[in-house]
Amino acid sequence: MRLCGWIIRIKRIGRVVIAEVSGSDVKPYVIVGKEDINPGLYKMLSELSIGTAVCFEGEPSPSQISKRGVEYIVKELKVYSTPLEPMPVDPAGKVPALLDTRIKYRWLLLRNPVEKAIFRIRQSVIEAARRYLLSNGFLEIHTPKIVAAGAEGGATLFKVQYFEKEAYLSQSPQLYKQMLVASIPRVFEITPYFRAEKFNTTRHLNESWGIDVEQGFIEGVEDVMRTLENLVAYIINYVRENNSEELEQLGVELPRVETPFKRLRFEEAVDILKSNGVEVSETEDLSDQAERELGRIMAEKGHYLYFIVGFPWSSTAFYYMREEDGFHTRKFDLDFKGLEIASGGQREHRLDKLVEAMKQKGLNPESFDFYLEAFKYGMPPHGGFGLGLERLIMQMLGLSNIREAIIFVRDRTRIVP
Ligand code: AMO
């Protein structure tokens, strides 16, 4: 077997050298060179420095003594590249680095088993989502990331000079996924979101990723919520079953998730918060602090994942369907331990009402002509959601900052690396 990777740790004990090679697996490959048994290998390993790129021919050792990785009996070791300077971070993780440094050198720190575990789990989340959605009849789509109109409000639009015209980076595939349910009953996209959030928080990125779904021919918003809860449960249970080594590296225990999730009406959430002394508005979305506090209260009742349903119209985007009372909408959020990880709802599919909603929200329907056109030719009742990938990973793994869940961070101060 030929295995390749980078030396992350070298330990000398008397006449034995133990080297750890970080390769394609979570745990490092462990190579042991003993001066009296394999002097050639012992000499080579003794001369290697941390960071060296190597390949070896070997087989797993019958005696697996090391707890840190999988031991190999090595027949041949080849050096491909040696570092030009000492490493700026410790890939073995013995010397902890500040988050700033970790972000700067994430591409290098991915040699570290813990750092690697996070991104192997990220890959599993995407794999699970795709499996679940494909097996439930959703078609994977790709929509433009350079757009002429934003769906999520002007304040977070990044402007782009598109030849003679002004364009924006897409905040959400919202308008396009809705347009496509005019001809494909179920669609999904795994996509970046670009949002010019000016504030620097532990839960916002300026470039983040979402799993976006849109589902036509629904009977009501419950159909959409069921898709979301089943998807989230499938993802978490998939990671639990397929990433035990990664979870162990991270010291995370992931309990099995069961559905249905608790549904909490917006008013109930407001009442619970008020009775716990948190000031909240009855017409605006919950603040980060209120969300966190609600998470704490819900956890005490055994609810880690819960929906908040029936948001007031004053707090939502124009495309959510309003209830007859004119006050409530069919918009929901899904919160995970006090953090919104997804929002969605049933959409307004009746053209006249949609145009009216846009005007009420201060938007000019003419700028959305291309979108409104799709509502003229048999648009079915539909709904969907956007599930934030980094937020899901953050909550699932108990990370304290969303920046830990994406390799290259785009935030208020970072556009490199
Ligand atoms: P919303 O704006 O709530 O809804 O976004 C959906 C989900 O995406 C994640 N998210 C973010 N994560 C990190 N940093 C950000 N700046 C950021 N912005 C959003 C969150 C959030 O719950 N079009 C609707 C969805 C729909 O109705 O289908 C939308 O974009 O986890």
Summarize the structure.
The chain has 417 residues and is of the alpha+beta class. 30% of the residues lie in helices and 26% in strands.
Number of strands: 16
The residue ranges in which pLDDT falls below 50 over 5 or more consecutive positions are none
Gross morphology is elongated
How can the largest sheet be summarized?
8 strands, mixed
Structural class: alpha+beta
Q: Note the total helix count.
A: 12
The CATH architecture category of the largest domain equals 2-Layer Sandwich
List the topology elements:
Elements: E1 2-13, E2 16-22, E3 29-34, H1 39-47, E4 53-60, E5 70-81, H2 99-104, H3 106-109, H4 113-135, E6 139-140, E7 146-147, E8 159-162, E9 165-169, H5 174-180, E10 186-194, E11 207-216, H6 221-242, H7 244-250, E12 262-265, H8 266-275, H9 288-300, E13 305-309, E14 331-336, E15 339-346, H10 351-360, H11 369-372, E16 382-388, H12 389-397
Parallel strand pairs: 3-5, 6-10, 12-13
Antiparallel strand pairs: 1-2, 1-4, 2-3, 4-5, 7-9, 8-9, 10-11, 11-16, 13-14, 14-15, 15-16
Describe this structure in words.
Helix 4 packs across helix 6, helix 4 crosses helix 7 and helix 4 packs across helix 12. The mean pLDDT is 97. The strands form 3 sheets. Strands 6-10-11-16-15-14-13-12 form an 8-stranded mixed β-sheet, sandwiched between helices. Strands 1-2-3-5-4 form a 5-stranded mixed beta barrel. Strands 7-9-8 form a 3-stranded antiparallel β-sheet, with no helix packed on it. It folds into 2 domains: 86 residues, Beta Barrel (OB fold (Dihydrolipoamide Acetyltransferase, E2P)), CATH 2.40.50; 293 residues, Bira Bifunctional Protein, Domain 2 (BirA Bifunctional Protein, domain 2). It has 417 residues and is of the alpha+beta class. 30% of the residues lie in helices and 26% in strands. Strand 14 and strand 15 form a beta hairpin. It is built from 12 helices and 16 strands.
